[in-house]
């Protein structure tokens, strides 16, 4: 089920809120768990079994890892947990990728499995792994209550597109959390803003990108607009989803960590990855990079570690070579920055931002490319070697039609609006105006977005496929 | 204090909207038909094991339920209007769902030229032409859509219409092209609809008649329907556009003509007053989308017979040509292939049999919208 859909907004969510409100404290997690299973089953009924099995395994193995803490069996159960969870992920997400490449290398024709990807498997697998690894390390206690653990893993706000919530971050909240008008209002505000990012910006750019791809009247400018639009689409789609997840979490008393922090204002790629999909970056840092030795190893081993982490980061995004290349592209950039460029970037004030934006836009062209031929076509188009004119009638039309969306998105990708809102809130008159304007503004925004949904302006979240 | 009040207000506002609309949509009786979009609305889907686990993901209960919720949402048209207003006037989109408004006229973006579609249409027309005698004169004309007058001049994406006409004329090498663009202007079209106004196309009829070697001299009386007309773009644009008057032309010649529907095997009226007050008033002309209709003119001064292959533009045009012919057979191959239509030559209990072989003139007249999206032709 999509957050940006009528069934979610006007059927599922009101029902869950009502049930949650009337449920006694001891049953609130059960309500959330059952709601989450319905939420998941809505898109993938048959894969609920897989998710429940994964959760139960995580529960049992967590207890066993803790039971044999400090003994070899503990490690055995951890490895078993890793093998099973990563095995499921490999089978459901990567099997056909491996078979395709095996066939290409050997010339054999092993039949593809054509398995439908269970929605959100990459996210909930990483959450379970973080739990069992943290229990093994002794960072958290194993959860005795299976409902609580299942609620943590299946919690619908972050189930299918993150952020990747660490068990350690919400372990206490699973037992004890507070509810207040302040939290509900914060959550509502955050949810509506996230919904707006998705419906009013990301989906609009999705339309723009589809138009570009279908166009027979491309131009150099059109290639650039596409690249920019796609980059903004990914950002607003994904950060919008994270906003909605964080907002929904707050409504039910949870505090999830932030997942985005205005990545496009970064002055280096290193900084970009500290601001972009932070929950994934820190997951790979804590569960792959540091266990491999991090940077406390020889120079060459350190370089190897960086490439492993970034190849896996790319591969996590999808079973396709373009994602692997995308990850390695960042691995190379981060290495260059680490070894040489970062000190210059830190001193720079302007050019470093252009450097980041150009590389990020290029990276998303790579991200969007179906294959290397497609990538070459897009890059050639952008640098004027694609045999297309500099500008075309179609480019001008769509530029005019989407100009306001581009401007809003570019402004929205910076902290400007947030800073202005805080400044207004902190002034005496401003806070009074906001007290009236904000509820009205949010209500109007929700109604307009409902109009967009009713009109059928609808596209699935991009990050579902990861 | 202000913050606390604000938080409570935000929570209450959202709760009212969320639960208000939720309860409304849960308990609202389902509507059957959308007048503005002229289509039936989805009803509550079947809930069963089979529909939940349906192999085709597009046919699962969950998917069809989603369509149902979109179709049955309370104040649906108002919400669509809200979206259109936001799209046009807040986000500055030049079009909404490919519909744009300029000079008070709603029009559809028709771009680019789809040559495959032109090939397909020409192929279908060639196939149809084989059903006529060797002496039949073949003519061909194109009705430009409103974009011809509006798009390029106002910065919208526009086909190269001259190239479009030229390409189509080349592909229709078995028929003589009659250019009617000089007889048309934007004002000849409805503001909220795709179609032209019958009362404005007498010049077009005369030009076509002249091209086919006959003459039209009759005068007509203009009649106005007493119900407001909202065209198809009114629903698609979802903007509060004003209603229009719908008119039709009549005279003694037309009133004495008989009209026969081969599909129904019965006589009908030139202007179907039931449809004039129905869901799509433009269907009043020759009862809309009938596959084969014959108008017989008992007062004809010649015994010439004309066959017209047409879309809905041709339905309002055809009666204006009858003056010069003893009969006109009007065929619509969007709903039945020429082979199926030709089978009407066997009476099968019908009062009349269809005979295409005696036609003197054959006119293919289609709008650029149909030609550029011709997959509907059979």
Written overview of the protein:
The complex is a heterodimer of chains A (466) and B (378). Chain A is an all-alpha fold and 466 residues long. Chain A has 3 domains: 6-177, no CATH class; 180-267 and 366-466, no CATH class; 275-347, no CATH class. In chain A, 74% of the residues lie in helices and 0% in strands. Chain A is built from 19 helices and no strands. In chain A, helix 10 crosses helix 16 (372-382). Chain A starts with 5 loop residues before the first helix and ends in a 12-residue tail after the last helix. The model of chain A is unreliable at 457-466 (pLDDT under 50). By secondary structure, chain B is α/β, with parallel strands linked by helices. Chain B has 2 domains: 2-76, no CATH class; 105-376, no CATH class. Helices cover 33% and strands 16% of the residues of chain B. Chain B has helices at 2-27, 49-52, 61-71, 76-90, 115-129, 147-150, 161-171, 202-211, 232-237, 252-256, 273-276, 312-317, 338-342, 368-371; strands at 33-34, 39-40, 99-102, 105-108, 137-143, 176-177, 221-224, 247-250, 258-261, 266-268, 292-296, 305-310, 327-331, 361-367. In chain B, strands 6-5-14-12-13-11-9-10 form an 8-stranded mixed sheet. A two-stranded antiparallel sheet of chain B has the order 1-2. In chain B, strand 1 (33-34) and strand 2 (39-40) form a beta hairpin. The longest helix of chain B has 26 residues, at 2-27. Chain B is globular. Chain B starts with a helix and ends in a 7-residue tail after the last helix. The mean pLDDT of chain B is 91. The interface between A and B is large, with 57 and 49 residues.
């Amino acid at each position: 089920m999509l957050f940006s859909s009528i069934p979610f907004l006007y059927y599922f969510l009101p029902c869950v809120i009502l049930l949650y409100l009337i449920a006694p404290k001891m049953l609130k997690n059960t309500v959330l768990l059952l709601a989450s299973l319905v939420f998941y089953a809505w898109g993938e009924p048959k894969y609920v079994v897989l998710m429940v099995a994964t959760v139960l395994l995580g529960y049992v193995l967590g207890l066993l890892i803790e039971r044999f803490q400090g003994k070899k069996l503990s490690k055995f159960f951890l490895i078993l947990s890793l093998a099973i969870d990563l095995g499921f992920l490999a089978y459901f997400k990567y099997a056909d990728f491996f078979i395709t490449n095996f066939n290409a290398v050997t010339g054999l024709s092993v039949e593809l499995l054509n398995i439908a990807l269970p929605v959100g498997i990459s996210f909930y697998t990483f959450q379970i792994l973080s739990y069992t690894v943290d229990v093994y390390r002794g960072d958290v206690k194993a959860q005795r209550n299976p409902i609580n653990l299942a609620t943590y893993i299946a919690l619908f706000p972050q189930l299918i597109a993150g952020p990747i919530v660490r068990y350690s971050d919400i372990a206490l909240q699973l037992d004890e959390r507070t509810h207040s008008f302040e939290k509900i209002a914060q959550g509502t505000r955050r949810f509506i803003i996230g919904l707006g990012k998705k419906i009013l910006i990301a989906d609009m750019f999705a339309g723009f990108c589809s138009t570009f791809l279908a166009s027979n009247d491309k131009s150099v400018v059109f290639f650039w607009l596409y690249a920019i639009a796609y980059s903004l689409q990914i950002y607003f789609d994904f950060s919008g989803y994270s906003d909605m997840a964080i907002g929904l979490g707050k409504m039910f008393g949870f505090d999830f960590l932030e997942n985005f922090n205005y990545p496009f204002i970064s002055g280096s790629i290193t900084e970009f990855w500290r601001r972009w999909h932070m929950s994934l970056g820190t997951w790979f840092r804590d569960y792959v990079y540091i266990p491999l030795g991090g940077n406390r190893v020889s120079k060459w081993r350190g370089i190897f570690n960086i490439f492993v982490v970034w190849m896996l980061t790319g591969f996590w995004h999808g079973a396709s070579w373009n994602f692997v290349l995308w990850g390695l592209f960042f691995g190379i950039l981060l290495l260059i920055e680490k070894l040489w460029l970062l000190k210059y970037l830190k001193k720079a004030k302007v050019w470093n931002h252009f450097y980041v934006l150009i590389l990020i836009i290029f990276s998303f062209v790579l991200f969007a490319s179906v294959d290397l031929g497609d990538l070459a076509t897009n890059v050639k188009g952008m640098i004027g070697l694609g045999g297309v004119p500099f500008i075309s009638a179609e480019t001008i039309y769509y530029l005019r039609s989407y100009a306001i969306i581009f401007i809003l998105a570019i402004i929205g990708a910076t902290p400007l609006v947030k800073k202005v809102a805080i400044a207004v809130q902190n002034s005496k008159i401003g806070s009074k105006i906001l007290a009236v304007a904000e509820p009205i503004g949010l209500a109007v925004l929700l109604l307009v977005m409902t109009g967009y949904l009713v009109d059928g302006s609808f596209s699935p979240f991009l990050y579902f496929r990861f | 204090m202000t913050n606390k009040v604000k938080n409570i207000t935000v929570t209450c506002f959202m709760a009212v909207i969320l639960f208000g609309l939720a309860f409304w949509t849960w308990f609202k009786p389902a509507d059957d038909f959308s007048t503005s979009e002229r289509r039936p609305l989805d009803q509550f889907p079947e809930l069963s094991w089979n529909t939940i686990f349906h192999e085709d993901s597009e046919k699962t209960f969950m998917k069809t339920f989603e369509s149902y919720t979109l179709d049955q949402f309370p104040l649906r048209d108002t919400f669509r209007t809200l979206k259109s207003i936001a799209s046009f006037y807040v986000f500055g989109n030049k079009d909404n769902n490919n519909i744009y408004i300029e000079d008070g006229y709603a029009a559809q973006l028709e771009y680019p030229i789809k040559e495959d579609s032109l090939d397909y249409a020409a192929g279908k027309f060639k196939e149809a032409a084989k059903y006529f005698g060797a002496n039949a004169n073949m003519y061909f004309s194109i009705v430009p859509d409103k974009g011809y007058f509006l798009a390029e001049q106002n910065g919208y994406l526009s086909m190269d219409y001259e190239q479009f006409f030229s390409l189509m004329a080349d592909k229709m090498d078995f028929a003589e092209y009659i250019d009617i663009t000089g007889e048309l202007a934007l004002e000849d079209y409805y503001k909220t609809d795709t179609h032209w106004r019958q009362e404005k196309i007498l010049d077009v009829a005369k030009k076509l008649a002249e091209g086919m070697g006959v003459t039209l001299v009759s005068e007509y009386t203009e009649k106005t329907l007493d119900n407001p007309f909202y065209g198809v773009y009114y629903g698609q644009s979802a903007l509060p556009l004003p209603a229009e008057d719908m008119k039709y032309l009549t005279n003694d010649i037309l009133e004495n003509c008989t009209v026969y529907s081969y599909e129904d095997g019965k006589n009908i009226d030139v202007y179907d007053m039931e449809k004039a007050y129905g869901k799509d008033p433009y269907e009043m002309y020759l009862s809309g989308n009938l596959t084969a209709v014959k108008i017989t003119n008992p007062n004809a001064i010649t015994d010439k017979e004309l066959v017209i292959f047409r879309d809905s533009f041709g339905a309002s045009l055809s009666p204006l040509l009858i003056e010069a012919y003893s009969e006109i057979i009007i065929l619509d191959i969007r709903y039945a292939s020429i082979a199926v239509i030709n089978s009407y030559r066997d009476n099968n209990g019908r009062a009349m049999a269809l005979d295409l072989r005696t036609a003197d003139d054959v006119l293919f007249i289609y709008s650029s919208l149909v030609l550029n999206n011709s997959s509907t032709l059979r």
